[in-house]
Amino acid sequence: MKSPISLTENHQQEALIKTKVNEKTEEINHLFQTNDVSHTSLNEEMKWLQSLIEMRCKELFLEEETELNVAFEVPESPKSNDESPYSITVNAHQLTAIDRVILALGVASAHYPSILKTFIQIEESSSAFAIEAGGEYNKANRSFKPTFQTALFLLAGKDLSLWSHYSAQLIKGSILLKNDIIYNRSSTEFIHGKIELDTAYLNYFLSGQKPQLDHGSYFPGTLYKSNLTMDDIILEDNVRAQIKPVGHYIKALENGFFKSNDHSFKSGFIALFYGAPGTGKTMLAGILANTYGIDMYHVDLSQVVSKYIGETEKNLEVLFNRLQGKNCMLFFDEADALFGKRSDVKDAHDRYANQEVSYLLQRIEKFDGLTILASNFENNMDDAFKRRIDVSINVIRPTENTRESLWKHYLPKNITFENENLLKHLAKEYSYTGSNIRNIMKNVTIALHDRNETIITHSLLSTYLMIENEKAFGKNQSRLSPFVQKSE
């Protein structure tokens, strides 16, 4: 017979719970009313959660002989009919009862943990409590972190059929987890995972600042913003011609081409930008995104690639799932780290590395947006993957004429070269990329500012040319091409 607390003690527990609830009610009434964003629905949700906690904790400690005479009904969830961020989230995702409880627990845990103090008080008076209600109690700091079992406990209580019902919904998949509003980082059983609310959504509920698609510390990508246009980048004519299919694809995606029944083409599109470092591959991708009005998400490989088996695929799944159907650009820099050639299997490491590439081949084909891969060498890519690339563009090193245009492009308005011959010499003798030229011009301009001068001379340039030569062409390559000053 399970009765850790006597009936007298039970009444004391009820009194304690009731007192705490009354003390908190006024606090909850004024909760989150600190700015212009309406928090009425969030306020009501917290009170609803508090009533659930009160009811279930009361039920938990009833003597078994009295249980059959007491009926416990889950209080009806509040109406979310205002225009607050919380109501918008509840209605937009059509949250079920179990999702409502999970979200409320996530908010309470992250922002108002005193709502959960009842769990702590009973945990400290009865070791049997954790078995029923789940959660993680920290004795050192007297904190309680709700788990998914806590949500089941609040909705189902001691009703095993309801436990099965709501558990089945969680197994099927919570929309909160699918949209990364709530995280479950448990490496063991799902039910024991702590309910973790994404910080961006907590900020949204409190301040009204809507989360971007790259929200959350677990998302391995960052929104890349560029205000540059095609007029701000200097490209070889053949490169400009080769990138046109990318623009055509973005327009086709927006005008519904891929929703037509007249063809069977998939809506995804893969482009490979390859060429030497500093030729502007990332800048070009950002300009294309800005030009055609789509968001570009730069993948952080340090957050994607993992030495642990299966973790790389899991990280990429988060990436693809969140951006699916969003008409955006996914940009992989140094893509050969992920999409590199598969090797002969010599050990377990080779086998799992090959499995990662195979997973990517299948997963990227399902992505319905634009994927741009950047690599220094085209041949670094896996052959099977290269066959799936829709367009491959060699972003070549700038030619002499283009280099001259780049030197002029990075020349500040109030600065001039000592003569035209120096400009011609730089363009002819140094096969720099745009990045190299930008670095030199930045350092030279700073030096001129320090000297309060406006004329770029070869002697001033020499130091920075040597530095950039070694960076661009390797060690011991800092020597300069002789410059003979010609009379004008």
From TrEMBL:
Looking up CDD domains in the UniProt record yields: RecA-like_protease
Q: Quote any Pfam family the record assigns.
A: AAA
| Example of a GO MF term | ATP binding
Q: Where is the AAA+ ATPase domain?
A: 267-399
Keywords carried by this UniProt record: ATP-binding, Nucleotide-binding
Q: Which SMART domains match?
A: AAA
Protein name from the UniProt record: AAA+ ATPase domain-containing protein
